[in-house]
Amino acid sequence: MRRYSCLIRQHSIEFPASAYILIATSARGSEIGVTPERAPAVVDSCQPPMCSSCGRIVEPYTRATRFNCPNCGKIAIWRCEKCRKLALHYRCPSCGFEGP
To answer: What is the mean pLDDT of the chain?
Structure first.
């Protein structure tokens, strides 16, 4: 039992601890005595795109390009701005096609 003082009437009232929890839950709009269930947090890991020539991470909003392999069309090839300017070669991991 916990003691809570009532400031309006200037006397103390004794409530069991479980009654206080039920009152607090009913004030939140849920059913009395039922703990609201939370949705599970979704944690999704993703791999950022890598440049097919130099292997660096391609950052968003840069002048990089993405295209499918010209030979097989299965793999997405990413090229960063630097590799595009220097015309470095890339290789498709699926079919082995090399391009400038």
So the answer is: 75
Calpha distance 58→66 (Å, rounded): 10
Per-residue pLDDT tens digits for 9-46: 455 555 455 444 444 444 455 555 555 566 666 666 78
Nearest alpha-carbon partner for 24 in 11, 12, 33: 33
CB neighbour class for 77 (10 Å; exposed up to 12, middle 13-18, buried from 19):
buried
First to last CA, the chain: 79
Can you give the residue ranges of every domain in the chain? 1-32, 48-100
Determine whether 84 is exposed, middle or buried from the number of CB atoms within 10 Å of its CB (0-12, 13-18, 19+).
Answer: middle
Distance CA 61, CA 43 (A): 24
